[in-house]
Amino acid sequence: MTFGSYSNWPVGMTLEKHQNLRANVNRLYFAGEATSAQYYGFLQGAWFEGRAVGENVVQMMNNQTNSTGNMTRYEVLHGTTALVEYTPANGWPASTLPNFGAGSEA
What we know:
Layout: H1 15-22, H2 43-61
């Protein structure tokens, strides 16, 4: 019997490491709340990630896309992620980071 669990990023987690967690291995694709950038640790993350991966696989099976569906995997990790890198292009669709001092005079 289980009572549920969730994932949470450890100290030192970077976007590159998270992308490696999401990246497929040949024909094996991963989805779940742990692979969601916006909703990691939440039920919505599992739903949205599972749906996105499922849609991608169906498109590949129906030859509706020119891509192979492979996700970027970083072989060399840089160890840090600058705040400016948290963008939709890097798999981070929403800002979940505090922006202290933005728009204020020092």
